[in-house]
């Protein structure tokens, strides 16, 4: 039986985000800048990562509290072997209705079909520019758009519903808003713009580098008229719009200029099994050691209830109100 646990703002624990690996084949300047995540950066050894058995044990526990959606992320999740097997096992957990992956798509050419067959419901693909010269800069590795576009095509051919995520940062890629909108209007895929956020401690964020939801929508609307679409469910983070000609939809995730903490139902598990109640948290709770010390489910359950019922996070609202920031966990560690 499902027992809903509510935090201090009456938010349930609905969406579980699991980072399965902290490594990545990209070095996006806004996420894992190459100056910090260089060749000598120490990523987690495999023994520190939660095993698939450990992940499944936790997913079963979360499902008892009403968690319905699981998103697999990283780092680059498809760098971890046998992800199709993990997807298939998560899909079998009673109560889990939706399993998604967030990826940079490069490995989808090889894996899209297997993932679809394993039961993956959808895929979110990150692409921050359609022009090679800009994309080569944003991904920090000089990678052209072709491998990503090929990955998108493979996902489409496999029958996976796709959303494209574009982080917009002033001075980096705001000139790509219209070219990206034009490209994905024509393919019919949903493109979602994400306001650049101050995740981690190294991405050089300040308010002047944010391109707001308002600016993004105005730019597109001028050329390709848009109309708003009603939210589909409680806690939906993207403000959705459709082109008036019905060709496609876009969304904007305005975590900076229009924070949505009041309906945030996300709980995050890092690759080494620490639990975080906010993307901008400074500390996590070590659940892996409970698993590895063979503690019973009851002990893990009572720890989760304790953590969630005292959850008071609303970092994006506090940021907007000018509250001083603190040292935060890195996005590649906690998972986006
Ligand atoms: N590697 C995968 C990918 O890029 O899709 C999954 C992990 S990535 C950390 C998850 C999401 O976080 C991506 O959509 C990425 O664009 C987004 N992201 C990373 N850093 C960000 C930042 N500073 N502001 C906003 N979004 C960010
Ligand atoms: Fe890697 Fe994704 Fe971060 Fe880019 S956004 S560095 S692809 S984890
Ligand atoms: Fe949720 Fe924290 Fe983001 Fe607010 S800042 S929406 S509480 S993850």
Automatic annotation (TrEMBL):
| Residues involved in [4Fe-4S] cluster 2 binding | 261, 264, 278
Could you confirm whether the keyword rRNA-binding appears in this record?
A: no
Task: Print the keywords alphabetically.
Answer: 4Fe-4S, GTP-binding, Iron, Iron-sulfur, Lyase, Metal-binding, Molybdenum cofactor biosynthesis, Nucleotide-binding, S-adenosyl-L-methionine
Phosphoprotein as a keyword of this entry, yes or no, is no
**Which GO terms of type biological process are on file?**
Mo-molybdopterin cofactor biosynthetic process
- The record's EC number reads 4.1.99.22
Its UniProt pathway annotation is:
Cofactor biosynthesis; molybdopterin biosynthesis
Record domain Radical SAM core: where: 8-227
Q: Which residues bind GTP?
A: 17, 71, 102, 163, 266-268
**InterPro entries per the UniProt record, alphabetical:** Aldolase_TIM, Elp3/MiaA/NifB-like_rSAM, MoaA, MoaA-like, MoaA_NifB_PqqE_Fe-S-bd_CS, MoaA_twitch, MoCo_biosynth_MoaA/MoaC, rSAM
Q: Where does S-adenosyl-L-methionine bind?
A: 30, 75, 126, 197
Stated family: Belongs to the radical SAM superfamily. MoaA family.
Query: What is the protein's given name?
Result: GTP 3',8-cyclase
Which species is this UniProt entry from? Halobacillus andaensis
